[in-house]
């Protein structure tokens, strides 16, 4: 029996673990090793150079810009997205006019809102990015077209071409994509909060704002926190890469105004032929990601409320 | 107290306007008659307005894309908001054949079908063993998988590109399938492990007593029991893999083998099609519609599938 058990365990774990080790774990380890070499990626020869890549990185202006933009995304994106999503979810679930027999209820059409808000979540980030690239087009785009329609002919920003605006335009697209997911997620969380809590609060004369901050938010805290981690990983990962790579001029421009860490890793490795340097920036990205996760976990830690 | 001065359920009519100006912070006002009416109305108008505004902001760009896909280029340029004069279905045909959307669609279908089956099979095998069997290294392997969820994938892609180049897997469909499976495993294993833990042990034990092997118990008893979990994580992976952009951009650079998202980006940036806006919009809509339609039909399952992992 014991013998059969171990044979079974090994048999079942071998394939997934091997695949995972070869395609995920091993490249991670390799990339940390490569960050100490002068490997170009173009030829198989390379030699160890110690911390030369790291010294170079700390003097690289583009790296600092990328880091700065990534950190801005990391801080701004979760705040806006989760804030909007909490507001919408609260309105949809608890914000409705009071009806007979129920202390709290959703607004009318809450089902529709939940379905519609979720649309962007099922679309490819690439498709969304292309769509908004055209929407932002200064001459033929939807947004400036709408501004002209309402008579704001003087206000025709060059959205993605304006170094001061470009990063915000891209942030807006990421917010547009993700709010709906969290509205649905928080709605599910709010639905599991017992109704008596709200009834008791209402009997005590609490306003809806108070109800939100004293009842809904504390009881939803775990979900908000995991949402925060999820948004952070998104702001540093594939989604941020995709929108900047597709939408921005250059990409990363104008004048490095939108470049982010994952994009710079990609460009260093596959455009500039500096694979070792790319992995160095990648290690910096890893450090930022882990530091972020640690901070959120520490700040967000509080006693778990059982209900 | 509140139950007595709650306004009657007449929509749109503030029952008791109250002496306060609308918009005054409600929380610090003394409780009295009319308070609920005033606060409720102002908040209701404001919140409904915001909800409707966001719904419009979400739906409008999608409608704009559908509308533009039926217009001529001139129509798109002159009046971004105008309705199409006639429905130019030829845009769709042009996108499907000349812009190779048909081929990209097929490539995506093959890649996603292969990797979805592989992810579910390998993921559930690993998760089952990790959830149900005690053995040295169990926790370590579990955290090895789960840790992969938070690592920046781009870091691994640089060496992976050259590994795949040397092994001949670069720019091949099967290579891409293997990579998709590998990068889908962390979440799949995480999700299914907690799912297998919730399943009752008695059924598996009964099967074992009846003489079924471990393998047979897994495929004939446990997998059917795990169906709801497999559907959830399957939907999650289907959308993630169908919409994947970063992995194919780095690891699949052969124009012949492009997937849909990649093909559309190439189309929107390539000089050759720069003029064909209507064709591009048609391509976008071709890529969008199947997923949106599937979402509307399987709305409940999709939402459960995508949000299941995040709640506890």
From TrEMBL, chain A:
PANTHER family in the record: ABC TRANSPORTER PERMEASE PROTEIN, DIACETYLCHITOBIOSE UPTAKE SYSTEM PERMEASE PROTEIN NGCF
Family: Belongs to the binding-protein-dependent transport system permease family.
CDD domains with a match to the protein in the record: TM_PBP2
Membrane topology: Multi-pass membrane protein
Keyword Cell membrane among record annotations: yes
Protein name (database record): Sugar ABC transporter permease
Domain ABC transmembrane type-1 residue range list: 67-296
Keyword annotations: Cell membrane, Membrane, Transmembrane, Transmembrane helix, Transport
Main location: membrane
Subcellular location: Cell membrane
Species name: Streptomyces pyxinae
PROSITE patterns assigned: ABC_TM1
InterPro entries (UniProt xref): ABC_transporter_permease, MetI-like, MetI-like_sf
TrEMBL record, chain B:
Pro residues bias spans: 8-22
SUPFAM superfamilies tied to this protein: MetI-like (SSF161098)
Disordered: region residues: 1-34
Chief place where the protein resides: membrane
Transmembrane residue ranges: 45-67, 104-130, 142-164, 176-196, 217-239, 277-298
Amino acid composition bias (Low complexity), ranges on this chain: 23-33
Highest taxon listed in the record's lineage: Bacteria
The family this protein is said to belong to: Belongs to the binding-protein-dependent transport system permease family.
Name under which the protein is recorded: Carbohydrate ABC transporter permease
Source organism phylogeny: Bacteria, Bacillati, Actinomycetota, Actinomycetes, Kitasatosporales
């Amino acid at each position: 029996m014991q013998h059969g058990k171990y044979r079974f365990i090994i048999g079942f774990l071998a394939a997934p673990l091997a695949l995972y080790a070869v395609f995920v774990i091993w490249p991670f380890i390799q990339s940390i090793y490569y960050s100490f070499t002068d490997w170009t990626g173009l030829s198989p020869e390379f030699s160890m150079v110690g911390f030369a890549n790291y010294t170079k990185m700390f003097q690289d202006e583009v790296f600092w810009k990328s880091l700065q933009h990534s950190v801005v995304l990391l801080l701004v994106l979760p705040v806006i997205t989760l804030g909007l999503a909490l507001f919408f979810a609260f309105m949809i679930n608890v914000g409705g006019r009071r009806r007979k027999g129920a202390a709290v209820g959703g607004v009318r059409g809450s089902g529709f809102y939940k379905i519609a808000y979720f649309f962007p979540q099922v679309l490819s980030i690439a498709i969304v990015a292309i769509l908004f690239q055209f929407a932002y087009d200064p001459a033929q785009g939807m947004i400036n077209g709408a501004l002209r329609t309402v008579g704001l002919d003087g206000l025709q920003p060059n959205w993605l071409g304006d170094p001061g605006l470009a990063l915000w335009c891209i942030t807006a697209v990421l917010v547009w994509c993700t709010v709906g997911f969290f509205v649905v997620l928080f709605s599910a969380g709010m639905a599991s909060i017992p109704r008596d809590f709200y009834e008791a609060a209402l009997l005590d004369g609490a306003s809806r704002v108070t109800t939100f901050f004293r009842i809904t938010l504390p009881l939803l805290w775990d979900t908000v926190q995991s949402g925060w981690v999820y948004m952070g990983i998104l702001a540093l990962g594939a989604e941020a890469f995709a929108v900047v790579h597709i939408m921005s001029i250059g990409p990363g421009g104008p004048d490095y105004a939108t470049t982010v860490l994952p994009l710079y890793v990609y460009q260093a490795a596959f455009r500039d032929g500096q694979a070792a340097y790319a992995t160095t920036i990648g290690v910096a990205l890893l450090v930022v990601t882990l530091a972020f996760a640690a901070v959120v976990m520490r700040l967000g830690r509080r006693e778990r409320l059982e209900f | 107290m509140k139950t007595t001065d709650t306004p009657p359920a007449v929509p749109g009519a503030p029952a008791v306007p109250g002496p306060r100006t609308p918009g005054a912070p409600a929380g610090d006002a003394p409780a009295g008659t009319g308070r609920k009416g005033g606060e409720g109305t102002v908040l209701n108008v404001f919140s409904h307005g915001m909800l409707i505004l966001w719904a419009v902001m979400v739906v409008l760009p999608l409608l704009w894309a559908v509308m533009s896909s039926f217009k001529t280029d001139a129509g798109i340029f002159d009046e971004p908001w105008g309705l199409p004069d006639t429905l130019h279905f030829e845009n769709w045909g042009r996108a499907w054949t000349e812009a190779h959307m048909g081929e990209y669609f097929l490539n995506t279908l093959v890649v996603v079908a292969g990797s979805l089956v592989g992810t579910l099979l390998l993921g559930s095998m690993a998760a089952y063993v990790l959830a149900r069997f005690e053995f040295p290294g169990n926790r370590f392997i579990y955290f090895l998988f789960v840790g992969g969820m938070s690592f920046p994938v781009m870091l691994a892609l640089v060496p992976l590109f050259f590994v795949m180049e040397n092994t001949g897997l670069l720019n091949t469909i099967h290579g891409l399938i293997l990579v998709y499976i590998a990068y889908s495993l962390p979440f799949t294993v995480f999700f299914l492990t907690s799912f297998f833990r919730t399943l009752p042990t008695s059924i598996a034990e009964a099967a074992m007593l009846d003489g079924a092997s471990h393998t047979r118990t897994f495929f004939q008893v446990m997998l059917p029991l795990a169906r709801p979990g497999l559907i959830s994580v399957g939907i999650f992976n289907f959308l993630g893999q169908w919409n994947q952009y970063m992995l194919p951009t780095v690891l699949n650079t052969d124009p012949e083998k492009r997937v849909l998202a990649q093909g559309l980006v190439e189309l929107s940036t390539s000089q050759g099609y720069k003029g064909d806006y209507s064709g591009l919009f048609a391509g976008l809509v071709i890529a969008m519609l199947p997923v949106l339609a599937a979402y509307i039909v399987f709305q409940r399952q999709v939402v459960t599938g995508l949000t299941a992992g995040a709640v506890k």
